[in-house]
Write a structure and sequence with these properties.
The chain folds into two domains: 224 residues, Rossmann fold; 62 residues, Alpha-Beta Plaits, CATH 3.30.70. 36% of the residues lie in helices and 32% in strands. It contains eleven helices and 14 strands. The strands form three sheets. It has a six-stranded mixed beta sheet, sandwiched between helices. Strands 2-1-4-5 form a four-stranded antiparallel beta sheet. Helix 3 packs across helix 4 and helix 4 crosses helix 5. The longest helix has 16 residues. It is globular. Bound molecules: adenosine-5'-triphosphate and magnesium ion (MG).
Length: 303
């Protein structure tokens, strides 16, 4: 089943007293399968937040169709299945995490005992159990992000939309958030999140869509997009003097006491390894360098 389907979505904004029109989304098509993590990747201003707002019904598209678990988003019921973490969550400073979650639960008209039970579980899930009584104004960016995630989960949505959840987090915060998102996937939820942080995507997404200037430039399973073909081989070695190296007429770079040679084919790499060994060099590493999501992203941007 498709958790989200966006077909030919267009959105324009008008400004200067309706004189000027900016065409922001130019026919977006996105499919997110149930149970997967979908990474929505694109530079600033590409249209990520605008797309998400259309899905959430916060803004009205010019044209196009959006459905969540097969139901059109015009139907309010379909949106009850969605949890949302905005780009810059802002909460009332003087509440504690526990109070905020209780309050959100009440907005969804859940019974009090159920709210208490869910609040307890969610606070544990996002790792805030020992800080649940501290006022939110004392929370760091990473902690606010976790409270925001807990809040997005209170009505047990099957589909989560997270707008730049990793922005502003340090490496530890990123790792922790990644683990939480992966555990949500394990519990059967579908996750659609935007980011420019390619490394975070590579470590967790099933599929990615690259948006540039209001158009989806590439979309697919991560494993298909990141071709497993090797871009080049890198050989790191020591123990050969520079004169011999220069005489061999291969391009090399020096890093500390080591030398590095890049070769395009497996055959050339093998020959070079043989040559280094013959000349009594010491091979430290032979690494096939593969295409990364970053390479694909930059390739698309530069086209
Ligand atoms: N309400 C609005 N009125 C006019 N223009 C808008 C409005 N909202 C967004 N835009 C414009 O639409 C474009 C896309 O914005 P959007 O926020 O969707 O980008 P984004 O991909 O989320 O970028 P970022 O990575 O910076 O969050 C931008 O040029 C922005 O200025
Ligand atoms: Mg945005």
């Amino acid at each position: 089943m498709k958790a989200l389907e966006i077909k030919n979505l267009h959105k324009s904004f008008t400004s200067n007293f309706l004189i000027k029109q900016y065409h922001i989304l130019k026919g977006i098509n996105i499919t997110v399968e149930e149970g997967e993590i979908y990474g929505f990747l694109g530079p600033n201003g590409a249209g990520k937040t605008t797309t998400m707002k259309c899905v959430l019904g916060l803004i009205t598209p010019d044209s196009g169709e959006i459905s969540i678990f097969g139901q059109p988003t015009r139907n309010a019921e379909s949106r009850r299945k969605v949890g949302f973490l905005p780009e810059q969550p802002y909460f009332y400073d003087y509440l504690t995490a526990e109070e905020l979650l209780m309050f959100t639960g009440m907005l969804f008209s859940l019974p009090k005992t159920e709210i208490q039970e869910k609040t307890r579980k969610l606070i544990k899930l996002v790792g805030l159990a020992d800080r649940k009584d501290i006022k939110l104004k004392k929370y760091s960016k990473g902690l606010i992000q976790r409270v925001g995630l807990a809040q997005a989960l209170i009505h047990e949505p099957d589909f989560l939309i997270l707008d730049e959840p990793f922005s502003g987090l340090d490496p530890i915060g990123r790792k922790e958030l990644r683990d939480i998102i992966l555990s949500l996937k394990d519990s059967g939820k579908t996750i659609f999140f935007s980011s420019h942080i390619l490394q975070d995507m590579e470590m967790m997404v099933d599929r990615v869509g690259i948006i540039l200037n209001g158009r989806i430039k590439k979309q697919g399973r991560l494993s298909d997009l990141i071709s497993h073909s090797v871009r080049y081989y890198e050989i790191v070695f020591t123990g050969i003097d520079e004169q011999t190296l220069t005489g061999h007429q291969v391009k090399y770079v020096q890093r500390d006491k080591d030398y590095i040679i890049k070769l395009e084919t497996n055959d050339d790499a093998n020959k070079t390894v043989e040559w280094i060994t013959r000349n009594k060099g010491n091979i430290l590493a032979v690494t096939p360098i593969k295409m990364t999501l970053e390479d694909i992203f930059l390739e698309e941007i530069n086209q």
